Amino acid sequence: MRVLVRVLSLLLGLALAAAGALLAVEVAWAWWRPESPSLLVPWRQWRETLADLSWQSTPVLITAVAVAVVGLLLALFASLARRTNVGLREPSPGVTVETSPRSLARIVGTRVRGEDNVTGASVSATAKRVRVRATSALESEAQLRPRLSDAVRSTLADLPLQRQPQVSVVVDSRRDRS
Amino acid sequence: MTSPATRAAARSYGGERALTMTTGLLLLLLGVGAALLGYGVFGQDRATRPVLDPEVLRTLVDWQLAARVGAIVLGLLLLVLGLRIVFATLRPEHHPDLALNPTRGHGVLVTATAITEAIATDAEQVPGVSKARATMVGDEDEPALRLSLWLEDGTDVKQVWREVDDTVLRQARESLGVDHLPTAVRLELNTAERQRVR
User: Fold this and answer.
1) Tens digits of per-residue pLDDT, A100-143?
2) Is residue A168 less than 8 Å (CB to CB) from chain B?
3) Residue B195 falls within a domain, yes or no?
4) Where is each DUF6286 domain found (chain A) (predicted)?
């Protein structure tokens, strides 16, 4: 997402520069040589088309909605390009340490999968919250969940995290279904 | 104000994000406004008027000189702004060299690559670290170090966390003769070899 926003901002810059250059050149040209046809952009044609279209005509409405959707997408991309790292404590002043949410999820996932009677696990992590979804064939949710929660909490407590994330564990057990 | 170490963690895309966000919100407002106008929310007679309003055209003709000069100035401003955005986005990140003892008149300049290669080699000696990459960031007045470490699966993160500061960074500070080197360390668990535990 961060790369996308960089590319988008590059394109926006190019578009602004091109539009500005065209505006200045066309206005200056029309001022200097009022009789000659436009230089690069057929703006006289555009002027006639726009003078014929009313605000409630279909092409104008479609364009308006399209512009709004593009704007919404741009705003969405910009807000998703936030850095989402997990902060670790400073080992000494002036040294910051961080890791990625994916790495944190991997650490937790390795620990959970190493527990007895766990057949599989998927973990998603942010700095604030760690969600574990484990599957088990042999133990019910009531048996396995407290054990897994403790394991996850102790794994997290062992890491020098700036803040302890909340832990939520869900167990999908075949025994609960039978 | 964020600390130099925090700023060293990654290149800031704040400007790019702000630009994309502003443009997005502006387009959204314009689009929604035009659509509402077309649906007659601001009055049915306004909705039936042409997009290029004759009244607006008449005003422009009445103020022709001002409109022409204004349009040219606006065009040039947009051109400059657009080019500035392009160059700011394309500018590579600056990697400052480190000047040692610059006050004595015959100081030594250590190039950024020389420092970072030495630090990365040191960091790779730490048990559990499979790959290390160091970069000098910031400016000459306030250089900072960005150190990315890729750890092997099952490494004790706390151990690495302690050891990097105790050995690698201390050594770097001592050999460079500085008391203070703001550093942002990034720990990444290796994802190259995917585990298949199902």
Assistant:
1) 898 899 889 988 888 888 888 899 998 889 999 998 888 888 88
2) no
3) no
4) 69-171
